[in-house]
Specification:
The chain has no helices and 11 strands. By secondary structure, the chain is mainly β. This is DUF4280 domain-containing protein.
Length: 109
């Protein structure tokens, strides 16, 4: 089952060389384990999503150019859909941004 993601969740781009943490700025009151929950509006380059090292498409710095998050939750925070660990975001340069590892501490049962 998909899990909601939060601030500092590691993201990767399939055309970049290194992961980067997500910075949540789209809302300020819904949190899990003290970390703000991410929404589909957390897609601003260099604000929410930092560069991914070198880009194999551009052969230069992998500055993200996110278009829109897909595979989001049906649940909304202030009319913005929550992001899940299965959410992906297409980059206008050609890569796909996805979750490497959630920042949450999941309890195994």
């Amino acid at each position: 089952m998909s899990q909601h993601i939060t601030d500092t969740t590691q993201l990767k781009c399939d055309k970049g060389t290194s992961p980067t943490p997500l910075t949540v700025t789209s809302q300020s009151f819904m949190s899990i384990d003290g970390k703000l929950q991410a929404t589909e509006e957390d897609k601003q380059p260099n604000t929410n999503i930092k560069p991914f090292g070198m880009c194999s498409v551009l052969r230069s710095s992998c500055t993200p150019a996110p278009i829109k998050w897909d595979n989001t939750s049906d649940f909304k925070i202030e009319d913005k859909k929550e992001l899940l660990d299965s959410s992906t975001c297409q980059c206008s340069v050609g890569g796909q941004i996805s979750v490497v590892k959630s920042a949450q501490n999941f309890v195994e049962e």
